[in-house]
Amino acid sequence: MAPPALSLSLPRALSGAPGSPLPGLLAPRQSLQPPRHLSRCLTRKPALTRQSPISQVGLLPSCPPPRSLSPPPSAPPQPLPAPGALPASSSPPRPADQLGWRTRAVAPGRGQGRRQGGPDQRPRALELAGAGPGAPTAAPSLGRVMRCPKCLLCLSALLTLLGLKVYIEWTSEPRLSKAYPGPRSTPPGPTPACPEPTLPANLSARLGQTGPLPMAYWNQQQWRLGTLPSGDSTEAGDCNAWGAAAAAEIPDFTSYPEDLRHFLLSAACRSFPQWLPGGGGGQVASCKDSDVPYLLLAVKSGPGRFAERQAVRETWGGPAPGVRLLFLLGSPEGKRGPDLGSLAAWESRRYSDLLLWDFLDVPFNQTLKDLLLLAWLGHHCPSVRFVLRTQDDAFVHIPALLDHLRALPPSRARVLYLGEVFTQAKPLRKPGGPFYVPGSFFEGSYPAYASGGGYVIAGRLAPWLLQAAARVAPFPFDDVYTGLCFQALGLVPRTHKGFLTAWPADRTADPCAFRDLLLVRPLSPQDSIRLWKQLQDPQLQC
């Protein structure tokens, strides 16, 4: 049976002259007719012309995809001519599937199936239609994307992930501020180009609070102080309220050593008047503009340690150009010993080098001496270049120390914190020792700090350290507390091998070994005087 006739308008290049049949392509009596289910669709489409390429002709949405059309049996398939080339009149006829009509049949019952295309999901009918690089490409419409289950699934997944990311970023910030004490990034600190102290609004990261907030009392109080604005007048807290809160919030407060309990009850009290001897006199003179010391020797002592103070005066703390000596003491009228008020009054009038304050002079109150000294420097000696803070049982080689300070670069001298530095030290948990710290009071490691036996700081840092102390919770050990204040300012201590603050008691003080040292302790008053005389001997051979 003969195939049905096909009435189709072809491009001019394929149809030849108007009104004439195609010689060699289609016989006049062998014209193809489209299937019945495509006849209605093809009648609504415009005719194919050179201005309307095959790649731009599609089926109406209401029409089902056609089945593949088979060519006449007598016409074997031939290769497609090059794009743009006009076929010869004797060319064999092109099969219907090479005219762009072959598409995949629709799966019954689930709408249109997946099209046979490449990675760009272009319909295979467009590829077979001869759309080369220069041919226009039909952009995928929203309807095609919506009809593709895989594309719709990917789009939904992307939108879900985007919404989840926005939700997490929006809700995680306030939660982190409550559960995580401090900023997630380290605040800017001093750099070699600009080693100046800075005091950020939040000290949590600088003070090592970079993990979950511990439940220890000091850590809780430090987090509260660290988040207060720097200009807040309530930074230091109420004197009596802080101690009452410590006694109420620490569960095992009654098991603390007595000295530690007394310290916590009054740790926030930092304003004490100077103790002045009766009868007048004994006032410590301020630094005059014409006589500003280059190095101030601030020596911590106790009211009953007159022999140690006298040994310092007669040896390394004696009068020297650019050097001034001061002793830091608490009240001589303490409750734990004899009344030494009259002796301290005589000594103060005799030497005028005693800075006394009206507080109990006990080991846990040594931090008060540091804070009150910083306040005194700001009012009476603000232009001092360097301050040596040491103990009355130390021996300092002043000439060697002055040579070292004068040789410092200006950038390092402006932020100097020099001594025997301890790093990654941890609190001692064994009860009964002098440095015992309960776990309910403090958790974590100590900052890098210079030993309290002796260290040197730049005098210009005194007001900075006072500001930092108002933002750092009280701590019972003075050297650790000083390290915390320097850490709050973003400054680090520098170690020097000439500082030896744990000199063995059974070791003989060799004067030749001391020539290369800057500070050694502890030494008895007798050993200090003997060593001093040996160093002053012009016949000393080393």
Order of helices and strands: HHHHHHHHEHEHEHEEHHEEHHEEHEH
Helical fraction? 25-40%
- Class based on secondary structure composition and strand pairing: alpha/beta
Q: What general outline do the C-alpha atoms trace?
A: globular
How many β-strand stretches? Answer: 10
- Strand fraction equals 5-15%
Biggest sheet, in brief?
7 strands, mixed
Span from first to last CA?
Answer: 129 Å
Mean pLDDT: 75
Strand order, biggest sheet? 3-2-1-4-7-6-8
Quaternary organisation of the protein chains: single chain
Give the low-confidence spans: 1-32, 41-63, 66-72, 80-137, 172-194
In DSSP terms, counting alpha (H) and pi (I) runs of 4 or more, how many helices? 17
Radius of gyration: 46 Å
Protein model, in words:
There is one protein chain. With 542 residues, the protein is α/β, with parallel strands linked by helices. The chain has a domain at 1-16 and 29-58 and 95-102. It has 17 helices and ten strands. The protein has helices at residues 12-15, 36-43, 124-128, 142-146, 149-179, 217-226, 239-249, 258-266, 306-314, 341-351, 366-380, 398-406, 410-413, 462-469, 478-488, 511-514, 525-536, and strands at residues 295-300, 323-329, 354-356, 386-391, 395-396, 417-422, 449-458, 494-495, 499-500, 519-520. Helix 16 (511-514) links the parallel strand 9 (499-500) and strand 10 (519-520). The longest helix is centred in the first third of the chain and has 31 residues, at 149-179. The termini are far apart. Pathway: Protein modification; protein glycosylation. Keywords: Glycoprotein, Glycosyltransferase, Golgi apparatus, Membrane, Signal-anchor, Transferase, Transmembrane, Transmembrane helix. One of its GO terms (cellular component) is Golgi membrane.
